[in-house]
Amino acid sequence: MDPLGPVRDPGEPGCDVFLTGTVFLDIIFTGLDSAPVRGTESWARGMGSSPGGVANMATALARLGLRTSLAAAFGDDHYGEYCWDALEQGEGIDLSMSRTVPGWHSPVTVSMAYEGERTMVSHGHEAPPGFGREGAAGPGGAVFPQCPPRTRAAVASLAPGREDGWIGEAARRGARVFADVGWDTTGRWDLAELTDLEHCEAFLPNAGEAMRYTRTDCPREAARALAERVPVAVVTLGAEGSYAVDSGTGETAEVPGIPVDALDPTGAGDVYVAGFVTGSLAGWPLADRLAFAGLTAALSVREFGGSLSAPGWAEVARWWADDAPDGLRERYAFLDELVPPACAHAPRRRAVPTIGFRHSA
């Protein structure tokens, strides 16, 4: 399934989406009855391991049929080898701009999911100069922030006070830039500090982030305020869905969330962005983009882990054919033209309790 098939042409870039960031080895515990209590031992009913961090977004994009290129540093250890193989061989992600760093161990995150939320503990060190966000050596030995690949789109994670040279360069070379943002640990919540926002076509914060950055107390008001700074502002509302404003057309759209039995919310925000990027590159209406992004995020929380919980078109087709509630049939009718009637289901790799099983010959 190629969602961009109708809009492809011979002269297009070979890459649909480029992104960069830190790859973690995620270890996820689920089935906890409550938050861990100091001085006690808690047992989880479920556990999974998978590539995490920026791998969540890269995998979600690739599983939706986009040609995805990732520039990242990988640890020179079993965790790094596992993550590299899982992304390159398992998901078909282009890692030609990524590098394995000799003697550097992989960053690790332990995530504990309970009561519909998660708590995470991470450990890692900055990659040596030349391998981290400052630059990974690309083709011909050039440093990638000065030479991001020619691509339809790029996905960036903004941070207050940080300017990533590659974002502006990607935009100047014609890439459509989509951005999310993390929690502002400085507490200032100053939009002026998100300097790369000027290069972005769309900005997709969650409701809490959006309201703090705009000094508003309503997510929809926050989206309208953000639309004064970026062409498309999308504010995610958790289980309630999402709301968006297109400042170029004046269009607004709101789509409710899809109720599902959530197992693990890790990576759901990344999957949402991947779904929105897919619809945007394919030229879908704004409301359909919100609906599709919300659907893919909802399907992802039914599985363990961040990256390997991301759905592909087979999961979307199965939901549309078998599980879509009657009340949502009209809203998601656009899937009739997208999903083949008999979409073959190839089993997806999912997070498992360990890595590196030894199989006897």
Largest sheet: 8 strands, mixed
Distance between the termini: 35 Å
Helices, by number, come to 8
CA gyration radius, whole angstroms: 20 Å
How do the SSEs run, as a string of H and E? EEEHEEHEEEEHEEHHEEEHHH
The dominant shape is globular
Q: Give the amount of beta strand, in percent.
A: 15-25%
| Helix fraction bin | 10-25%
Structural class: alpha/beta
Strand order of the largest sheet: 4-1-9-10-11-12-13-14
Low-confidence stretches: 133-143
What does the average pLDDT come to?
89
Subunit organisation of the chains:
single chain
Tally of DSSP β-strands: 14
Structural summary, described in words:
The structure is a single chain. With 361 residues, the protein is of the alpha/beta class. It is 25% helix and 21% strand. It contains eight helices and 14 strands. The protein has helices spanning 54-63, 78-91, 165-172, 207-214, 219-226, 268-282, 286-300, 313-323, and strands at residues 15-20, 23-30, 46-53, 68-71, 73-75, 99-101, 108-114, 117-123, 151-158, 176-181, 202-203, 232-236, 242-246, 252-255. The chain has an eight-stranded mixed sheet, with helices on both faces. A four-stranded mixed sheet has the order 3-2-7-8. Helix 3 (165-172) links the parallel strand 9 (151-158) and strand 10 (176-181). Helix 1 crosses helix 6 (268-282), helix 4 packs across helix 5 (219-226) and helix 6 (268-282) runs antiparallel to helix 7. The chain is globular and about 55 Å long. The two termini are 35 Å apart.
